[in-house]
Structure formats: C-alpha cells, structure tokens
Specification:
The complex is a heterodimer of chains A (416) and B (275). With 416 residues, chain A is α/β, with parallel strands linked by helices. Chain A is built from 14 helices and 21 strands. In chain A, strand 2 and strand 3 form a beta hairpin. Classes of the chains: A alpha/beta (416), B alpha/beta (275). The interface between A and B is medium-sized, with 16 and 24 residues.
C-alpha cells in the first residue's frame, strides 16, 4: 500500500426501463466484460406486462480506478447511472477559520467527491477536517478548520462524498505479520524481523518512514539504537517533543537522562538539574543544529538527525521546561509543521509516546501503515479508539524493541 | 403522470410542417451539413412545395403550418418538435445549442393549438419523432447522437408503453428516422448498418416483417418516409429491388425530389410531424 489515497474500484449502478426487451441489460453486461470489468447483479425487477419497465442494480468492479472510470463511461451511455450520482453541495466560508454550517467532517479514509459530474480524490486526507474545492473545481483538498479562508468553497452534507473503507484483506496484506489486537503475548522476535523487512522494502521503493518517539526511548537506554536506525537511513522524519530531544541531548552532555545515569541505574549527584542546564546550553548556541555543528553534541538521536539531514518536528506542551529553541510552541503551527511531512509516508512507527502518537494519528491518512509500540496496552487502544483503526500495536518495552529492530536492520541481509 | 393515449395506428390524418423560407445550412451539426455545400433556396422551396402538394392533394392529409423563424433555419424539420400522443406533446430537448431556440417556438404553437405540453428534465436530450417512432403500441427509440437513453425511461414511464431502445452506430444516421421506418403493425424498413447486433436482434424479434435496405438506399434516405395507411412518401431515388419489394407487399410509393433537404441530413419524414 502507498500513502497516496486509493480510489474506488467498484461502483453500484442502476439501469431502468425496457432493458430486457431492448437488450440493454445484456449489452451493458457484455460491455463490462469486454472492458475487463466484472459485475454482480445486486437485484433485478423484471416488468410483468410488456408496458412495465424493469430495473436492475449492478455492482461493477474493475482492476483499478482508471479502468472503472472507463467501464462506467462506456455503460453510462446505455443509461447505467451510479446510484449515488449527485454532486456535492458547496457553501462559501463567510469567516476565516470557520466552516460554513453543515460542513462535511472528514475521516482518515480515502475519500472522493463528485463535483460537476466528475469524481475527484480528496488530497491530503486526514480526520476531523473539512473539504475545500479549489482551482475552479479541479482539486479537492482536505483542510483543517484554522486554514479556512473567507470565500473558500466547502463541501457541506454527505451527498456526493464517497469514502472507501480499507478492505480487511488489504490490511492483512500490509501487515501479514501482525494482527491489530493489542497483546503482550506476541512472538516479538519474528514480528520485529518482519517489520525490518517491510522497512527495507519501503526504502527500496523510495517511500518515507516516520518515527514518533517519546522520552522513554532515552530513559530506557534505547537512544543509541534509534540513532543507529536513523544513521542507517531508515528514518525520513522524526516527530517528538521537548522531552525526547532534551533527554537525548542531556545524555550526550552529562551522561544522564533526567538526572539518572543509564549505565549505573543510579541517580547522578546533583543530576536533578542536568536537563535544565542542557536546555540552557542549547539555547545559548541557538538550537540543536548549531549544537551539533559546533561539536557540543557528538552522539545520540538528535545528532544522527542533524548529521543525516533528517527533518524533525518538535512540538511543545504546557509542561515543558525551557523549551529548546527548536520546539514549536504554537500547537496549531506545530500541527501544520507535522502535516508538511505527511505526503509520501508509507509507515509511521510510534514508540513510547502517548500524546505525540495521538496527535500524529489524527493527521495520518488511514492508508499509512501505523505501528504503535508501547509498554502500556492502553496507549494503543486509545489511539485506535480515536479513529486511527489502521494501527497495529505491539506491547513491549521500547529498549528491547529498538535494540532488536536496529539489529535486524543493520545485520540481516536483504531477502531478494 | 401517465399519458393515457398511446398511438395504436399509423393512419395519420394530420401533420405539422413549416415553410422553408429561412432554411439554409447555417451551421454543421451532422456529417451531412456543409456550409460550403449551401442550399439552393429556390429549389428547396419548390421541393418542399411538391412534398406539401403530395401530402395534401394526393394523400388528402390535413397539414398545419408553423410560422418560419429567420434565426431558426432547421425549424423546417418539424419532426424534431416533440412526440405527439393524442392531445399531449412530449416536447423536445435539443442536444445542440443551435436548435434549442426551436423549443419555445414549437411550445408556443402547441399551446396555442390546445395541446398539453410535457417537458422532460432539463438537459435530458430528446429530439422528438426524429428518435421516437411508434410501431403498434411499441415505441422504438433511437439514442446516442441526439436523444439520450435516459429519456427512454422517462418516456416509457410517461406513456406506460413498451419503449425499445436502439443504439445508433453510424453518425450519418444520427436520428432513428434516418435509418428506421415503421410502415404498419407488421413491417418496418431499416438499414442494418446503422445498428449493432443488439439493435438488429431487437428489430428482428419485435417486428414480424423487417425489410433491410441497402446502404445506397439508406443514403438516399428511403427510411425517411412519411406513412399514411399503405401509402409511402419517400425521397426520389429508391432502388428498383426495394421498390419492387414494397409494391409486391401492396404499398404505394410517392417519390418526391428532396435533395436540397438531404444536404442538411433530412428528407420527407424529417419535414413532417405526426399530429
């Protein structure tokens, strides 16, 4: 699966009239077959008297959306019309940042709208947004509330909107090695090996991998493994908060994470303020990139990102210390910064971060494969309950997960 | 709503025609029309008058006339005004902008003459008797180039009659009345090349005596025939074999030179509407 939205490959059409006597129905069926499509007659009512019209509903399936459009075009000239063939209702936004009354609220599933008799795929789909028709109807773009400008044409009501559910079989194909139920009883070694294989394939196909990481990655001692995975080129973008970056940098500057020595599992003397001194030092040089370039930071996750040129989005929260200069403290601006990295994503790997996992889940299309790794099963359940049902969960400690993943990615030879 | 007066007969007594005062090739909306191949105005008047004379004097039909309109050169082809069933007319929705101006003109005429007017949904194309011809209780309906199949279902519902749709394949025969002519309950002329295998099967299955005409005859518009009882008014140039077949079946042929109208893709039937 790719992160570009899939579009429908089947459509329900209706044909009415003297379709049996006129041989219109057999002709439609023949034309579907001739165009390499297939059909299922959902129901048919045949007129009893010769003046009675007949009616049939057909489900037409084709190999891909283009082929389906060709089939539909061919049979529409014979009177077969899609059952839900109405255009969307558009209303103009009268205030910036406010949807018009009755606006259509999006899901994260592939969505199409019908405008002036043509179906258009909604770009940048994510849940809980609206759909704006742009460029005089040529584009339909999923738009968050705060980005609405006055005069934008916004889709209202559900008519003319088609949402394509992800088929279960397709989900299995994506993650054959996992089921979406959360369990700590899974054979993790095999699962992680197959995830590594999937990551290799994604990179081979030139697609993008997102990692969302929480501070526990550093606390549990997994930072070197994540850095190793970044250096090996398996991460295209990192989403995190002030905490992960601070603790990773603290580990580099002081050898502690929130004051605790990771190697000795004891608190370092006077270590309680290490994270504050770290933030202060980074603020003094102007930011994380400057700290790496000046040699202040020599290892770790943020170092690997800067050296490898991997973009990172650090989003602030109300409890942050500092924060680091790289942290975006305006949450709406932070969401937009995250959104800019969504196109082209095929896999999102979320490790030990509840808030950032939920925030990212909110803006991901359902077509992006999402793996959530957390020691707490409630995190995975929570994200899935908020609508990111494409998520597959792995209940495990982040250190053992990342250690195993790094080992698989850097040592196992690629299967052909 | 149902129109409770299906047409059961082809014994037509009344027709609607329009003087070709303003008839010319002003645009090109079918393969016959070429502005450079312009109409000889005087000849067209003569040919039309000859047709009118045959219909009124030899066949004794009652012909009503609609006032010609300068900006509507194709108003002369009254067959496309709509489909008349009893005192109701299903008004045409022309596909081409160039002819859409005819809709209110015809509508006014029908209203003035006491017809009930039924219109189809906007943009549902239907070009009247050009694409809809009765054979007994069954309406044969041509679609693709001018009328569209969606109108078939609407009209079937309005009439409560069987409507058999025939897809047209050849642009030269863009209306059903250019390639298909029911001439009595048993018989129809048709040009097989204008239909696909489905259409040909429908014609052969529902018409006991279908008469296939040659391409040469079809191009001389023999299917564009006005039928009144056993008398057929056709454009000049019917081939000897077809004339023989029709004569042997007991039909009487009246041939009228209509070359100036064939220049626009119409002949005898296109010039009249059955009332």
């Amino acid at each position: 699966m790719t992160s570009s939205p899939t579009t429908a490959t089947s459509e329900i059409v209706e044909v009415k009239g003297h379709i049996i006597d006129s041989l219109i129905l057999p002709k439609i069926l023949d034309q579907i077959i001739d165009a390499n499509g297939s059909f299922e007659i959902l129901d048919i009512t045949i007129g009893k008297r010769k003046s009675d019209a007949s009616r049939a509903r057909l489900k037409i399936t084709a190999a891909n959306p283009t082929r389906l459009r060709q089939v539909l075009r061919r049979i529409s000239a014979l009177g077969a019309t899609p059952v839900d063939a109405v255009d969307v209702t558009l209303r103009r936004a009268t205030k910036p940042g406010v949807f018009p009354e009755g606006f259509y609220s999006t899901t994260n599933l592939p969505t199409q709208i019908r405008y002036r008799t043509r179906w258009r795929t909604v770009e940048r789909i994510e849940m809980d947004c609206g759909i704006v028709v742009e460029s005089r109807g040529r584009r339909a773009v999923c738009t968050p509330m705060h980005r609405i400008r006055r005069g934008d044409l916004v889709v209202c009501g559900g008519a003319g909107v088609k949402v394509t559910p992800l088929e279960r079989s397709r989900q299995r194909e994506i993650f054959q090695f996992m089921s979406s139920t959360v369990s700590s009883e899974k054979p993790k070694g095999r699962i992680i090996a197959e995830l590594a294989e999937e990551m290799r394939r994604i990179k081979h196909d030139g697609r993008k991998i997102l990692v969302v990481a929480g501070p526990a990655v550093v606390h549990t001692g997994a930072a070197p493994y994540l850095a190793q995975i970044i250096r090996a080129g398996y991460v295209d973008v990192l989403f995190a908060g002030n905490g992960l970056a601070t603790h990773d940098l603290e580990l580099n500057l002081y050898g502690t994470s929130l004051g605790a020595k990771l190697d000795a599992s004891e608190r370092s003397e006077a270590g309680h303020d290490h994270h504050l001194r770290t933030i202060n030092a980074i603020r003094a040089v102007g930011g994380i990139r400057q700290a790496v370039r000046r040699g202040l930071v020599k290892h770790g996750i943020m170092h690997a990102c800067v050296k490898r040129g991997v973009p990172f989005v650090l989003c602030g929260s109300i409890r942050d210390d500092g924060p680091l200069p790289d942290v975006i403290t305006d949450v709406v601006a932070a969401q937009d910064a995250m959104r800019r990295h969504i196109p082209g994503l095929e896999l999102a790997l979320m490790v030990a971060s509840t808030l950032h996992t939920i925030a990212t889940g909110n803006i991901l299309p359902a077509t992006v494969k999402t793996v959530c790794v957390d020691i707490n099963p409630a995190v995975v359940t929570k994200v899935a309950d908020r609508g990111s049902f494409q998520i597959v969960g792995l209940v495990t400690d982040s250190e053992s997960f990342l250690r195993e993943l790094a080992r698989c990615l850097t040592s196992v030879k690629r299967r052909s | 709503m149902t129109i409770n007066a299906p047409r059961f007969t082809l014994h037509v007594r009344r027709l609607l025609m329009c003087w070709p005062t303003h008839y010319r090739i002003a645009y090109e909306i079918n393969p016959w029309m070429r502005r450079r191949h312009q109409v000889q105005h005087h000849t067209a008047q003569t040919q039309w008058r000859a047709l009118h004379t045959v219909l009124t004097e030899q066949l004794g039909l009652d012909v009503s006339l609609i006032q010609p309109a300068k900006e509507l050169p194709d108003l002369v082809f009254t067959a496309n005004a709509g489909l008349v069933v009893g005192r109701t007319v299903i008004r045409s929705n022309f596909r081409y902008r160039q002819r859409q101006g005819e809709e209110p003109v015809f509508e006014r005429w029908f209203r003035r003459h006491g017809y009930r007017i039924v219109t189809l949904p906007p943009r549902q194309y239907f070009e009247g008797e050009g694409d809809a011809l009765f054979l007994g209780e069954t309406l044969f309906f041509g679609f693709r180039f001018r009328s569209e199949v969606a109108a078939h279902e609407t009209i079937a519902r309005l009439l409560g009659a069987r409507v058999l749709s025939l897809e047209l394949l050849d642009r030269r025969f863009y209306h059903l009345d250019t390639c298909f002519a029911p001439i009595d309950r048993q018989t129809a002329l048709y040009y097989p090349g204008a239909f696909d295998t489905y259409g040909r099967r429908v014609i052969r299955r529902f018409i006991p005596r279908p008469i296939a005409v040659s391409e040469a005859d079809a191009l001389r518009f023999v299917c564009n025939t006005v039928v009144s009882g056993r008398r057929l008014v056709m454009p000049m140039g019917v081939s000897a074999p077809l004339r023989r077949t029709l004569t042997q079946l007991g039909y009487r042929l009246f041939e009228v030179e209509l070359g100036e109208f064939i220049k626009a893709g119409g002949a005898a039937k296109c010039l009249v509407l059955y009332l």
